[in-house]
Structure to design on (597 residues):
């Protein structure tokens, strides 16, 4: 239960007290300044508390936005301030100062909320002030102003604003025009029945897994059902975020589930398509794994570029300026959003092609579309980086180093390589990747590939021997991801034994989950996963070398078993640690407004 302390004399006919109760607040009245301090001290330390001017006039949703958002330790709007337990001490100090300064006079309660907000700002507390738009939040000082404020409230449909604000301001064309116009009403329906975003997220996952199961049947009816269910899963995927924004039911666990389930749904569906194709005599596991690799590498490019420029200073670029100009031309915005094949367009394409064509055609179209999108976005970001004048910070360099996922072998080599060889980090990472992947293509499970994998380890160490602050150093993590994943793909394909590619699919999925988990932790300013975990699973270079050694030492059948065992071991380790972290009290409050394409 939260507590709201109304300060000042109650206004006859005001609905404020009822509005606060409808938002879950236990309302208490403070007629004098000293009463506010006494009432605040009586509120349990683990509860949210709000101080609201009794003269407040405004929309219920304005109060909801300003007083109940769980993402912020302190929030305020005109005439009201709210704090969670972590900011409680600062509010207590501010109220004590006000009470002492006023001498307990009743007049001191006038504008008390505004003065407390200013005091929190002065105390270094980050006070969130929501953008209200057309919503009204005011503290009238006379009857005429009060009447005008009430008329302004009546002129704006509070519920319409709430529904509209539940939808992300920036989204893909398909999501904006084909999903959100009705999914917002599903979100409202869920809110009125007490459903939580996490429940909707779970329903979306289960729907996608059922869709994957339908695709795995290999029948035309199964493919049609899979396409329809995949679309419905995406509707639910949009609904959970809209429900969170509509009812302000944000949570750290929910943000993590939403982010990770999106990847799990898409990649499980790829596996379902591959199983369905196999039932029809068509082996497309290599295409399924290739699609997962391409999509994951696209995400790593997004993450690395954004982290490299997250807090860069003097961050200017003629290319970025041109992009901003193009954004002012309406139709170019939608074209540019569509050609990068964001999740809405991508899932719609997969669903339609699944229902109407074959898994092979679906994967071909997916690979071509994603390859074009990857080329477009990466080329643009490279151009921006080359023309940008920016000074990157130590935080950005550390984020890139964490995304690189270097293991004990690279750490050991870096100790000896410092101050010896100077090679541009992206060049070294790219050369190492080309070396190991090309050797796998040429020699497969041979010792030549193992030797080239050793070269990959050496070049990987040279890539991270210095802080990654160069203009193109954000390319290092994507190069490492591509090298590791493609090596596994090529060696599994060349093993030419039934089950090797599905085992490789599982291994890459487990490792990719670890890399996504690293990203979400960095976004929450929680740093990378613990060092013991990175060491335990070998780092990118250790896993790559291990896979090449296993391929050279074992028969094809044994190699398949080894890949399966490695996939299970990595999955168990990363999932156990990830779940432990994200359900702990120390998990960061990451609330994404959208995933990369």
């Amino acid at each position: 239960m939260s507590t709201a302390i109304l300060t000042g004399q109650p206004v006859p006919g005001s609905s404020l007290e009822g509005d606060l109760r409808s938002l879950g607040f236990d309302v208490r009245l403070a007629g004098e300044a000293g009463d506010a301090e006494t009432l605040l001290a009586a509120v349990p330390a683990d509860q949210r508390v709000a101080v609201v001017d009794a003269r407040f006039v405004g929309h219920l949703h304005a109060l909801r936005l300003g007083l109940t958002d769980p993402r912020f330790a302190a929030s305020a709007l005109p005439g009201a301030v709210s704090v969670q337990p972590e900011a409680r001490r600062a509010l207590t100090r501010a109220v004590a100062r006000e009470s002492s300064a006023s001498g307990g006079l009743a007049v001191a309660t006038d504008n008390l909320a505004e003065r407390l907000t200013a005091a929190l700002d002065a105390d270094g507390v980050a006070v969130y002030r929501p953008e209200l738009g057309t919503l009204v939040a005011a503290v009238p000082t006379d009857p005429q102003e009060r009447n005008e404020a009430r008329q302004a409230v009546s002129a704006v449909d509070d519920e319409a604003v709430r529904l509209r604000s539940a939808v992300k301001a920036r989204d893909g064309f398909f999501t904006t025009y084909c999903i959100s116009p009705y999914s917002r009403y599903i979100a409202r329906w869920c809110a009125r029945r007490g459903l939580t975003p996490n429940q909707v997220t779970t329903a979306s996952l289960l729907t996608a897994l059922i869709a994957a199961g339908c695709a795995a049947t290999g029948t035309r009816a199964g493919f049609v059902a899979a396409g329809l269910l995949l679309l419905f899963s995406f509707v639910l995927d949009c609904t959970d975020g809209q429900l969170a924004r509509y009812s302000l039911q944000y949570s750290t666990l929910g943000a993590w589930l939403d982010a990770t389930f999106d990847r799990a749904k898409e990649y499980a569906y790829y596996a379902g398509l591959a199983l369905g194709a196999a039932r029809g005599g068509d082996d497309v596991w290599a295409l399924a794994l290739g699609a997962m690799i391409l999509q994951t590498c696209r995400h790593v490019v997004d993450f690395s570029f954004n982290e490299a420029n997250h807090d860069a200073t003097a961050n200017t670029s003629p290319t970025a300026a041109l992009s901003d100009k193009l954004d002012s031309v309406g139709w170019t915005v939608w074209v540019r959003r569509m050609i990068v094949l964001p999740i809405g367009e991508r899932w719609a394409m997969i669903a339609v092609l699944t229902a109407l064509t074959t898994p092979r055609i679906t994967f071909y179209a997916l690979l071509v579309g994603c390859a074009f999108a990857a080329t477009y976005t990466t080329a643009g970001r490279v151009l921006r980086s080359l023309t940008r004048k920016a000074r990157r910070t130590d935080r950005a360099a550390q984020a890139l180093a964490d995304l690189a996922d270097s293991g004990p072998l690279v750490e050991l080599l870096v100790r000896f390589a410092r101050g010896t060889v100077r090679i541009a980090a992206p060049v070294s990472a790219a050369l190492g990747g080309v070396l190991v992947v090309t050797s796998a293509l040429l020699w497969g499970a041979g010792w030549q590939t193992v030797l080239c994998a050793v070269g990959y380890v050496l070049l990987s160490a040279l890539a991270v021997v210095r802080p990654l602050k160069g203009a193109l150093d954000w390319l290092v993590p994507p190069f490492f991801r591509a090298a590791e994943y493609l090596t596994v793909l090529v060696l599994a394909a060349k093993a030419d034994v039934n089950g090797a590619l599905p085992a490789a699919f599982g291994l890459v999925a487990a490792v990719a989950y670890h890399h996504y988990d690293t990203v979400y932790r960095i976004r929450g300013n929680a740093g990378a996963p613990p060092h013991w975990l990175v060491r335990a699973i070998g780092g990118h270079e250790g896993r790559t070398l291990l896979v090449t050694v296993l391929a050279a030492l074992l028969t094809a059948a044994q190699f398949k078993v080894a890949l399966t065992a490695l996939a299970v071991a990595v999955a168990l380790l990363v999932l156990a640690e990830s779940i432990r972290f994200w359900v702990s009290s120390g998990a960061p409050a990451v609330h994404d407004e959208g995933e990369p394409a």
About this structure: The chain has 25 helices and ten strands.
